[in-house]
Amino acid sequence: MKKLLLHIALFFSLICFSQNEQLAQYYYDKGDFEKAKISYEELLENVPQNMQYFLRTVDCYQQLQQFDVAEKAIQNRFTKYNQGSLLIELGYNYQLQKNDVKAKSYYDQAIERIRKNPNEVYGIANTFDKKVQLEYALKAYKTATEIQPNFNFNYQQGLLYGQLGNFEMMITTFLDEAYANPQNSILIQNQLSRFMTDEANVSFSTALRKALVLKVQKSQDLFWSRYLSWFYIQQKEFAKAFIQEKAIYKRNPESLSTILNLANLAIEEENQEVAKEILDFIIENTKDLGLLVQAHSYLMELKIKKATEKDYAAINTEIEALLKQFEISPFSLSLQLIQAHFVAFNLKKPEQGRAIVKRALELQLNDYEVAQVKMELADIFLFEEKFNQALLYYSQIETDLKNDEVAHEASLKAAKTSYFKGDFNWALKQFKELKSANTQLIANDALEYFLLINDNTVADSTQTALKAFAKGDYLLYQNRNQEAITQFQLVLKTFKGQDSRAMPEQAKQIEAVTQLRLGKIYEKTAEYNLALSQYQSIIDHHSDGIYIDEALFFSAEIYSKKLNDPEKAKPLYEKIIFNHQDSIYFVEARKKFRELRGDKNL
After folding, report:
1. Dihedral sign for Cα atoms in the order 315, 316, 319, 321
2. 585 and 569 assigned to the same domain
3. Residue 566 near residue 560, CB atoms below 8 Å
């Protein structure tokens, strides 16, 4: 019974202690330092060895400008524990009082402690860093390595050089560390990437590229060619990355899988010419069945994407020839699924497409391959307006691969199926859940549809405009572009207002997104001036809406990539940079604007 009472007492005391800590944190975050000081003093009295409580107590003294009290507390703790980091706390206390001479004296004493005992570098350098005494933090690491050459603080020093704006030393230090300890390369590349995308460090990428090019020129080590390839990939300069990858392969022809990944990245960024060049190189240089099938699959997808109806017969013949070459087996599954999709969506023969998919299901496939096949089968059912069958297969994938990225993709497609069939309430719930998906593309897609349904339902409870719009989206899904154009034009005619400031909310909500859809279709059919006119209408009449950043970015991309008119593209990218920093296109717009402005020549 005594033991039970003791445990109960301890339990409640822990709860009270935790609550006191939360209260102290609350006052501190709120800026009520007088109350926070009292709370932290009580906590420190109960656990005097707790450094965090001590530092917070001192910080409260300093916030209240009780510098003498803070100094006495630090001195007492230094006498008791003799920690070198406390010398920095004393120096910082004087720095707050604008007494730089005294502050420097204590900072120098902390450095001297490292000379006597290099192991103290960890606490001292870390404290200097926290107090933003970056030069002293750097000096601490250098002092320690002078005495103990076995110490390695290259990574920490590289970060400090970056924070100090010394990019030349940062790059040199990081690259030396990456070469000496390749296991740290990913960590270092992550830091370099941060600086490459930082608005303030315009010339950083140029300096890094020059450093890597020099390394490649001076050394025969493939390590530097791989690093330069990585750099070009970050810059989305896939042609230059391919040059490096080819050089690596010629000297060390072990595998082409890295080059295949490069082709995939080029495809994702719609750099089709470079992707085709890479894929042709793979086909010419490998006998690996898996690589060959994948390379041919990527090439076929590129051809189908660019094809017009007159190309369909030749493409169908080519796919059949490839399947005859590689035979029907799990190895050629990607080609089989491409054929099924092409037959159903392009040749408009869904029954034949389903037959190809069902034949594939009879093969010896793993769980992910089965999910791929079921996904294609569901897509074809959706094409045929067989919504319930489509939902059945999408739900099977969700169940079989729960919480996997493929399952999230199936969930997104299931939500779109509900949207296409007009079940907007259920679709809205599904899109709401998918907004927080781990995969950014799925999350962005789900957010777009969530806002579309939600905004138009609020504007029009009958959902009349939304139903008409969803019909257009479904025609797009079925690859019936001309019919989709007609449907979207009907939506505009029926619901469009003449003046966005005076138009009914229902028309205001549906007009911009309809024009956005039409713009994307016209882009797909290479009718770029028609696309630009749709985007310009959004810019002129819906500048306060959620589609303005897309209209600006898509217009800029057309001028830059399709019409070769960079002078018209620049101000559009610039508007995104200055007016839409929260846009998903912000980073890309900034990069494109710098390229057009000539920043790469800095």
Report:
1. negative
2. yes
3. yes
pLDDT digits (tens, 9 = 90+) for 511-527: 999 999 999 999 988 99
Report the C-alpha gap between 384 and 377 in whole angstroms: 11
Q: What is the C-alpha separation between 232 and 208, in angstroms, rounded?
A: 11
31-75 pLDDT tens trace: 999 999 999 999 999 999 999 999 999 999 999 999 999 999 999
At residue 495, the pLDDT reads 85
**CATH number of domain containing 380:** 1.25.40.10
**1 within domain boundaries:** no
- CA 597-558-447 angle, to 5 degrees, is 100
Q: Is 198 left (phi over 0), alpha (psi -120 to 50) or beta?
A: beta
Region for 14 from its dihedrals, namely left if φ exceeds 0, alpha if ψ lies in -120 to 50, beta otherwise: alpha
201: pLDDT confidence band, cut at 50, 70 and 90?
low
Domain-embedded: residue 18:
no
CB atoms within 10 A of CB 334: 18
Q: For residue 540, give both structure tokens.
A: 């002129």
What average pLDDT score do residues 111-139 get? 96
Residue matched to tokens 């230094």: 78
Q: Tokens in use for 11?
A: 């339990």
Query: Same structural domain for residues 465 and 575?
Result: yes
- Residue range of the domain that includes 423: 366-449
Structure confidence at residue 482 as a pLDDT band (50, 70, 90): very high
Express each pLDDT in 230-275 by its tens digit: 999 998 899 999 999 999 999 988 889 899 999 999 999 889 999 9
Residue 252: DSSP 8-state? S
Element (H, E) at 36: helix 33-46
Amino acid at 377: L
CB-facing half-sphere around the CA of 415: CA atoms within 13 A: 26
Is residue 531 domain-resident?
Answer: yes
Structure tokens at 282: 């793979």
**Measuring CA to CA, which residue among 525, 559, 555, 558 is closest to residue 538?**
555
Final residue belonging to a domain, choices 434, 449, 464? 449
Counted domains in the chain: 2
Q: How many CB atoms lie within 10 A of CB 123?
A: 19
What's the predicted TM-score (pTM) here?
Answer: 0.80
